[in-house]
Input
Amino acid sequence: MARHAFSVPYSRPVLAPFACRGSGWNHRPEILRDEPCGGTHTDKSSRMSPRNVNHHLRHLAKAAVFGMISLGLMAGGAAAENPARDSAATSSDPIQVAQNTIPIPRERPLMVEPPRAAPMGESPGAPLDLLQGLNIDPDSAFGDAAADLVRPDRQMRLAARLSEEGDVLVDGLAWRIYRAQPGVDGSFELVEESNASAPIFTLPADDYIVHVSYGLANTASRVSLREGPTEQTLDLNAGGMRLAAIGVLDEPIPAKQTSVSVYSSEQDEYGQRKLLVEQAEPGKVIRLNAGSYHVVSRFGDGNSVMRADILVKPGQLTDATIKHRAAAITLKLVNEAGGEALANTAWSILSPGGDVVKESYGAFPTHVLAAGEYSVIARHDDKLYSRDFTVEAGRDAEVEIIAQ
Output
C-alpha cells in the first residue's frame, strides 16, 4: 500500500495553543516565527496517520476549552478586587462571576426568656395545680373526708309545708342530705338523714342537696353553708287523694272485692303509664305532688273496671268516689230447672263480639260482671251447652243452664 505524506501549511504568526516547531507538534502556546515551518513535511518522523490527526485534534479542542475557562476565572477575580472596574464592565466580557465566595449567615444572639417570678405564697419549683381556675372542689368531688377537718361546722335548720300558704308539717317527713358535688361514678354521697319534722343538721361549710319526701310527694333544693348557718323551709307543692268504691245503689263495696291503682297521667311511646300506687286501700289518704293522675278501680274478678282522671291541688285533700255498674252472677248447669248443679263443668263467658270475658271450672262459680249482654258456654262430659243472658247493674242473679 502506498504511504501518503501529510503536510500542514502555516502562514502568519498567530497565538495558538499548539504550534509546529521543526518536525512535530508542540503543546505549549507560543508565537510562531514569520517563516513557515519548513513548508511541506515529508520526512518519516513528521508523517502522521489520520488516526493520529484525530487524536491531536481532540487534544486541541480540550486545550481551547481550558484556556477559555482560565481567562474567565482571571476576569472574575479581577472584578472582585476592583468593584469600580466591575461596574464599568460591559457585556463583551467573556465570563462574569456573580459571587466568588459563599455567604455565611450572621450569627443571631440566643434569646433566653427570663424566669417567671413565683406568685405570692408559691415557692419556685412548686408542683403545677391542674385544677386552678376550675369550679371544682377536688376534696368534695372525690369524697376526701380530710377536707371536713379544716372547714368550720355550721347548722342547717329545715322545715317543710305542702304549699306556700300552708302550715309547717309536723309528721310524716323523711329528710336526706347529699353532697352537691357528685363522685367519680356520678352518684351523690348521702351525708345525713332524719325523720324529724324540723331537723337540725350540723355539717361542714359546703354545698348540699336537701331532699324531703311526704308519702309519694317529694322535692329537693340546693342549700349552701359556705356563708354561714342557714334556715330553710321547703314547699312540697303537694296534696292528698282519698279513694272510695261504691256500687250502683251507693252501697260501699268491701275492700277485699276492690283493687284501686294510681298511675301517672303521662304515657310513654307504647301508651303505658307509670304505676305509682298498686292496690291502694280505700279511704286512706295518698300523698302526691300536685297534678293530674289516672285511677283504675277493679271490682271483683270479672270485667268490672272503672277509670277516672283525678286532679290533685296543692295543700288540698281530694276525695274521689268511683261507682261500679256491675252485679254478681252465679252459673249453674242442672239436669232440670231448680235441680242440683253438676260438678266438673268448664265455663266460658263471652262478650257479644265473641271475646272471652272469663273462664272458670266448677259446679257453681260466681263472677262480678259489668252491666251488659253476654253468652255462656258450659262443657260437661264432652258435651257443650250454651245460653245468652243479661246483667243488670246492682242486681245479683243466678244463670241456670239445663243440660238437654
Notes: The first strand starts at residue 15 and ends at 16. The chain has three helices and 25 strands. The two ends are 155 Å apart (CA to CA). The chain has a mean pLDDT of 77.
